[in-house]
From TrEMBL:
It comes from the Bacteria. GO terms for biological process: methylation. GO terms for molecular function: methyltransferase activity. InterPro entries: Methyltransf_12 (IPR013217), SAM-dependent_MTases_sf (IPR029063). This is Class I SAM-dependent methyltransferase. Pfam families: Methyltransf_12. The keyword Protein biosynthesis does not apply. The keyword Translocase does not apply. Residues 63-161 form the Methyltransferase type domain. Keywords: Methyltransferase, Transferase.
Amino acid sequence: MPPRDTTDAELAAQYEAFPYPARDPREEAKRLIIGSPSHLREIDHWVFGARRPAAQPLNALMAGGGSGDGTIMLAQQMTTLERPGRVTWLDRSSHARRVAQSRATARGLTNITFEEGSLLDLPGSGLGPFDYIDCCGVLHHLPDPAEGLAALASVLAPGGGIGIMVYAPHGRTGVYMLQEALRLLAPTDQAPAARVETGKRLWKQLPETAWLRRNPWIDDHIKGGDAGFYDLLLNPRDRAYTIPQLADLVAGAGLRIACLVEPLRYDPDTYLTDPKLRARTAGLDPIARAALAEAICGNMGIHIAYLTRDEPPRADWTDDAAIPVLRELDGPTLARSLRPDGLLPVTFDSLRVQIPLPRLAAALLSRIDARTPWGTICASIPAPPDQIARDRAALIAALEPLNRLLLAAP
């Protein structure tokens, strides 16, 4: 597809010059980059309600796959867990494709298909349908994000889901001010490398009153190399979405928000203890509650969400045959680290909250190994059954909204 407009052409040139994020395939031997959306455990839980059999092949699309973080993560997790299916990488940058392919080769991954092209061409492309689609950090750069999300929905299989990440305005305070300044000092008709050089000079000269200097939650221009600097401050087009704006975008594509990651972060009662304020929050619908949390915290720079067409099936936490999993946590290690006061400290971009855990939390956590079902775990704990049932429910209520305690695919 040819560029839609001059800005779209500039955006294509940017990602050809600076595939994002900057990655060295040689580092695949050292680590697997983990994140959201598209963690396989999250897909199983939030999209499919831990009801889609693990033996059923998963056909996934990475729309705007870039240098491959999400593609490599999901393909590696599927390989490690011996899950059948394929991951299709789709992007219009040939440079990004070379990086992503080199990373896959370094890991010996054979379950990835690479396709060059625009996600806007998906309708009628012959690709899909896909059980799961990732679109991380892409929609907010498109000429028409609504058209982009509709294109993704057009190749979504029945019962499937989409994982997205879009920018959020409050946590990006200072970014758009500096973008405006750099449009004056480093106009888009200059070569990308020259624009980066000018931008770095400006960053060194910024007064202390510049809002981005005071924003501790944005650091891609500091830690992300030239690709990170360009993507944050020289990107020719990006927009940020508040929760109500995101909800409108999603609804316009005939979709719904199944989960905001992490759910606890979007619950205003996480931060408000005043009973009169909580009485008011109780009357708000879920989107309004999330919008309130976003507005009072002020530090959300992105929103990550899982989307579905219909109300997704909910994980059945009462099923004793279900297998609990801790996302990127080791149960025994976490159990040993719990504080005597029963509070679990959690930090959301410098915002610290305390999550109360039940008395049997350590006993339960130490037995969660991604293999043992709830029934077996509970039967092995020497405590009254009614107390075990209460504490199991309390542990779920504390850790599922943190996106840490999930159910495995059956």
